[in-house]
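Hello,

Following up on my earlier ticket. Below are the four sequence lines again, exactly as submitted.
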Amino acid sequence: MAVSKSPADSTPAAGGGQPRTGRRPGENSTRAAILKAARELFAELGFAGTSTRAIARKAGVDPALVHHFFGNKEGVFAAAVRETVSTDTVLDKLPETAGENLAEELLRAFLGLWEERETAEAMVALYRTAVAANSTTNLLHDAGMAPLIERIAKLIGGRDAKARATMVCSQLIGVALLRYVLRLEPLASMSLPRFIRYSAPAVRATLSGEIAPAR
Amino acid sequence: MAVSKSPADSTPAAGGGQPRTGRRPGENSTRAAILKAARELFAELGFAGTSTRAIARKAGVDPALVHHFFGNKEGVFAAAVRETVSTDTVLDKLPETAGENLAEELLRAFLGLWEERETAEAMVALYRTAVAANSTTNLLHDAGMAPLIERIAKLIGGRDAKARATMVCSQLIGVALLRYVLRLEPLASMSLPRFIRYSAPAVRATLSGEIAPAR
DNA sequence: GTCTATATGATGATAGAC
DNA sequence: GTCTATCATCATATAGAC
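Thanks for your patience. The regenerated structure is below:
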């Protein structure tokens, strides 16, 4: 399974040069309805637990349309994730140089992805699917984690920057998973600023060089 | 789904009083074979991705035997997890009072569960299933997390001990998930002592009172 | 674009013979 | 304890009429 693949996404490219014979906007409501239903179901039940029939039922459309628009179940999933969340927005919010509050800035930028309903649904679906099985584990890494790790490594520098950056990234994933996916209390009900205050010391400790040398 | 439930576990109680007509030991090899296959498959493919037929196939037994011994799919899962991992061993390894190296001791005790093959399989299966869907989220909390949180809270004390203990616990879960379930590099390939060195600063920072007050 | 009809196969579970 | 046979249901996916 690869999110970047879309076997039969039959939506015509909206950015074609000639605007004259283009499709009228707002016309394609069922495709959007399918995507919305898919996002919600994948977020709640995971990839394996969601059937294309259930998606069609929830969207109020015919089951065959799901395959017509997206080819297969993976296509629906990929479209639902890809068209709602763009991890570039995280990188854009990060500072160019490491300052005093890098830990807080990292947490704010990354957790921001999870604070809006639609992107949160897509992220939850992504995490659920990535954790679900051996074969889908790399979904997380592929979906924007790699550039984030590199960026953090460049920010902190030093000898084992890559390893420490991965560790930081693992903490970001860990806290997001517990607050937004597992909804563990009292973390889930905290306000975002308070949650960041609780998470920041751990991230800061890892960012700084308080780690024993490799050997 | 509840791990503590076992709908039709038809194994006769081995500790019955009269030894005369008891079953001979070592006789029940297929039940063990089913459990072993179940553990491996649940760990690799998750709960939803594993079929009872696949378990039977891998164990080399008839599919009907799976239901005969464990009633249903949930029964197989519950037995596979319950009979291989006991979270009490984690609590037993923890110190009575908080010392200088509490962070390391916590990590060593908890991660120890994941370093042996069979228990690791059961833990991975448990985590995969817990993360997979909304309905199974509480599996993690039920499977020994609650007493661990209370124990940590008692160890660190203070006003918001419960919240900080939960945060610590969330970090334990987070690092375990990334190293053993997602197998994110370079964390997965590190030696355990080195991994603990990398994880300890974050845990220690959360354990100590470096967190801003609630409001 | 939308839907009916259907091909094809896997699934969890049960009843009952040996 | 073990297996055959089977039920009822669900799944993904496709072909083709309107």
